[in-house]
Amino acid sequence: xxxxxxxxxxxxxxxxxxxxxxxxxxxxxxxxxxxxxxxxxxxxxxxxxxxxxxxxxxxxxxxxxxxxxxxxxxxxxxxxxxxxxxxxxxxxxxxxxxxxxxxxxxxxxxxxxxxxxxxxxxxxxxxxxxxxxxxxxxxxxxxxxxxxxxxxxxxxxxxxxxxxxxxxxxxxxxxxxxxxxxxxxxxxxxxxxxxxxxxxxxxxxxxxxxxxxxxxxxxxxxxxxxxxxxxxxxxxxxxxxxxxxxxxxxxxxxxxxxxxxxxxxxxxxxxxxxxxxxxxxxxxxxxxxxxxxxxxxxxxxxxxxxxxxxxxxxxxxxxxxxxxxxxxxxxxxxxxxxxxxxxxxxxxxxxxxxxxxxxxxxxxx
Length: 365
Known about the structure:
By secondary structure, the chain is an alpha/beta fold. It is built from 16 helices and 5 strands.
């Protein structure tokens, strides 16, 4: 029989090996450097837990099967990391798939150590007790983690949007179908899922259908059902002193809210949903006519509703985006040879998406 001490030693070993692999691949390849650096940061944030007296034991205070599966997953994660340098630059699909594996690995690490990591943040906040710093730090963290829009405003659109007209038309048509309850817009990070969701919220036809009942939520990695309902009641519906203690209480409050709206149509936008939040979407589903959920995610939730895959730029939009990014102030100066524009934009159209800044358009560069 394996003891808890042995599991602790095994977990420490596989995490150290994973970190070594991340460091070596970060130096070897530029293709996934952003994601590898994120993994590096996550693994180093775990060091106080691995070395702290009794902290790792608290993390492993869970069913033995779950611990064994996680150790196996981290071992497999090392192989995923080592494979980074073997993915060819030109193979966009394989880069997309492999990037999702790296993202999932980072999520699983954070999820497994979630309680202890939250304790780290709580301790840090308690230590900042001089002047107004305690209030400032949580607010900055909230901005980074994302949250609800204000009660009356959907997030603003970017100044220049290129290549969305077709997608807006198609997604709007799907959303307005009577039999659609959940629609997921999926694509790699940085391709414009959130921009498309904002466009839908600002669209005149969508506003005519849903009126003021358009709720926009940016979902963070550790957002719970209770937190979403509490924020929804507080920020969107102006319910004061709303502190939900349990999941059941949150469920009841959301049901009451739905009943009060009666026959009014409702659009709930869940932006940037992570793979581990699939059950959260299920919890927010209600068999109510006119209630629609729009999800944006890097992941597919094929068991929940319909899916729309946001595609690559076409040639014409790729050219327009290239010229806009290269000559943001004066398009008249864009005197590049036509064949050069075509060649560059063709290559960009295979690896870039609907943003307005070329440096941010390379997938996971």
